[in-house]
Design a protein that fits this description.
The structure is a homodimer. By secondary structure, chain A is of the alpha/beta class. Chain A contains seven helices and five strands, in the order βαβααβααβαβα. In chain A, strands 2-1-3-4-5 form a five-stranded parallel β-sheet, sandwiched between helices.
Amino acid sequence: MSTLLRVDASIRLDGSVSRALADSAEAAWKAEHPDGVVVRRDLGQHPLPATVWPTLAAAQVGQEPVADSDRMPLDEAKAIAADVAAELRAADAVLLAVPLYNYGIAQNVKTWIDLLLIDKELVHGPSPIAGRPAIFALARGGGYAPGTPKHGWDHATPYLERIFGEVFGMNIRTAAAELTLAPVTPGMEQLIDASKVSESEAHVDAEKHGTVVAREVIGTAA
Amino acid sequence: MSTLLRVDASIRLDGSVSRALADSAEAAWKAEHPDGVVVRRDLGQHPLPATVWPTLAAAQVGQEPVADSDRMPLDEAKAIAADVAAELRAADAVLLAVPLYNYGIAQNVKTWIDLLLIDKELVHGPSPIAGRPAIFALARGGGYAPGTPKHGWDHATPYLERIFGEVFGMNIRTAAAELTLAPVTPGMEQLIDASKVSESEAHVDAEKHGTVVAREVIGTAA
């Protein structure tokens, strides 16, 4: 029996493309691996409080608590960080569903990553999760492909690849839908068809990744 | 009389290099412009709550509140966003003191930027703050220069430049200190001298930027 950690970051439930892509990946994973367990963390519905990481990071550098600052009790912060890191360490595979928000990493995802990196073994290695598979289910409202005006404006994907690929040493497979705002944004009407093609292709990718990762995990576990 | 908005993001007070650089820039600005006003927002000591932006962004896309999700009252969130945007719009110049945290944008800064971008005029323009000066006072624990092993791992500076330079249309001047962790990190002893040089140069840059920006603001206002 193995575990898939699914992390959602969209602030939407209805109409979230990243959640829909993750649903496709998860369904394919389950179909291949019916006795697998899916553990969920929903950063979109339940963002981690803004004071957890500052409390822990300040303590790590030996900074005395300042009376006036917004912090939380250190023990409480440690418990949250331990919980978050344990969840990642226990996962045989990870499924990240992350929208691009304001050209950058979703704030709730950066908050979560900072908290993971309180675990010094995850930062400096040897990474306890090196070699494990990660599926990225990404949604971007606009188009960011080479040749488009906003090429280079997606500052989130390179950062996610840096942390999960290079710092954690995971093997990343990506399913990304672009132009997801076209169907609901005045002025983007002419991009609706391209948006549908992108979303449809991303679902095919997400399903494929779900299947392949389930097989990989079962094979490794066998 | 003109206004400098100073925003600090370091979770430290004592020993914060970004705060010290901002102190240098601010002192030079004041020396040149004694009747100028400095407005401060300290995101390091008082991070914005994690629920403000999700509440507002969900409302903007017409998402009905979900009973189970962590949100705040919409009116309260709107008041915070209006406050934050008004502060930026009212500033003749901006001084941002931001450390590089975990190779990415500081979580409290992304949270603040997301909130600013709730103001649709700041996103789509014409930017009400285009052409105004911004000083970046940046601190990085390691070395990220071309030729170093971690070149390309600073994912924060390009993002800050994107938002303040390209989205807001501000004129950015940067003072950046690198290797700031060398004096306090075992194994980095051989980099302490280079760290001191970098910090010293950054203070010179910060002072210069403070002086030049004050003159620019006074000139513009005259």
